[in-house]
Specification:
The chain has 367 residues and is α/β, with parallel strands linked by helices. Helix content is 34%, strand content 18%. It is elongated, with a radius of gyration of 21 Å.
Length: 367
């Protein structure tokens, strides 16, 4: 039975992803090595190789007897996913990776290097069941939830690429992770939460990232938003609003027919109050659809004096779609009107348009 706040969707029957170190709590890892007849401390050694040294190749595990490495690797670090291809742009500082999972499923992640930070956008589901009409992933439908380890491994691989200097600018550390790739993170609640724990647990149990560097996006699954607020985390919540009125949002974000704008915003303000973090309001500007000045005014009135920041996103169009980015003059007016209400607003730096940057495009092209 699903936990409260976790939605379930029909998915094709198939084998489960193999159990991996990143799926397990530290205690469960110790149990797993004990099943092999090993001392519990071996779990910490393997975790240190994976999370700190960023390697799953047992040949370099010199602190573990050579005769035991293969069994531990097979038990704790099975191969989960392989790279289909990398595509890069922005002077190779933006790199999108298409992954093939163990069952042939395709997902994507994006690594973006900026002068002051490095952000990785990761997928939490293969496809998405939210059916937003302007989103390539949403139109593809949901294939299945990713396992915790399938989520975490995207990030470990990105951290390894940065450390090894594969991204121009010299070796670097990953500073930010955003759950804004394929899928609705809060519809895969338990696995996403465990992934956050694995990312933020101190070494050797996890990557040791700051919770404040992690952002979890949602289209507005209200019960799960309240549940997340009760977890005691300091991650940022990003609400994909895209329209300030129910009439339009019912079309752009179909889950709005279940939880209306007022309910979704109430859940967002609750998260802001409990966590102490400002909520990011994501708003994709779509030409002649949601970019009217009166909608900017309505949004400004809804957000005035709230702990919120608006992230305006010029739509990255999907080939063949009627949905496209707003005119520059309409974008500027939208910003001006929000600022007139005292609402902090930025326009997202659009990266990756020349590499099928919108989530789901690369996977759709491969299929």
């Amino acid at each position: 039975m699903p936990a409260p706040g976790e939605l379930t969707f029909a998915a094709p029957r198939g084998a489960k992803p193999p159990r991996h170190l990143a799926d397990l709590t530290p205690a469960e890892r110790r149990e797993a090595v004990a099943e092999l007849g090993e001392k519990p401390f071996r779990a910490g050694q393997v975790a240190r190789h994976y999370f700190t040294r960023l390697t799953d190749d047992p040949s370099g595990w010199t602190d573990i007897p050579a005769s035991r490495r293969a069994a531990l690797a097979e038990k704790l670090l099975p191969e989960l996913m392989t790279v289909v291809r990398h595509v890069s742009c922005d002077g190779d500082t933006t790199r999108k990776t298409l992954w093939r999972l163990f069952d042939g499923t395709l997902v994507e992640s994006v690594l973006m290097r900026y002068p002051d930070r490095v952000t990785m956008c990761v997928s939490s589901q293969a496809g998405c069941g939210m059916n937003c009409p302007f989103c390539a992933t949403g139109q593809a439908g949901l294939t299945r939830n990713l396992s915790t380890a399938e989520i975490v491994h995207q990030i470990v691989a990105g951290a390894r690429a940065l450390r090894d200097g594969e991204i121009p600018g010299g070796p670097a550390r990953l500073t930010n992770v955003v759950f804004m790739g394929m899928g609705e993170p809060l519809a895969n609640y338990n696995r996403v939460l465990r992934a956050i724990r694995a990312l933020t647990d101190p070494a050797p149990d996890g990557l040791g990232m700051s919770q404040r560097g992690i952002t979890v996006s949602t289209v507005g699954l209200v019960p799960a938003m309240y549940r997340l607020a009760d977890e005691g985390l300091s991650v940022r919540l990003a609400l994909s609003l895209h329209a300030p009125d129910d009439e339009l949002r019912d079309t752009l974000v179909p889950v709005n027919t279940r939880w209306k704008v007022a309910e979704v915003l109430d859940a967002a303000w609750n998260y802001a109050e409990v966590s102490g973090r400002r909520v990011s309001i994501e708003y994709a500007l779509i030409r002649d659809i949601n970019d009217q000045a009166w909608r900017a005014d309505l949004l400004g009135r809804l957000l005035k004096n709230r702990r919120a920041h608006v992230n305006l996103i010029p739509l990255n169009p999907t080939p063949g779609s009627k949905w496209t980015a707003s005119r520059p003059e309409d974008e500027r007016e939208f910003v001006r009107r929000l600022e007139a209400y005292g609402v902090p607003v930025t326009v997202r730096d659009t990266r990756g348009q020349e590499i099928d940057g919108a989530c789901g495009q690369l996977a759709a092209a491969e299929r």
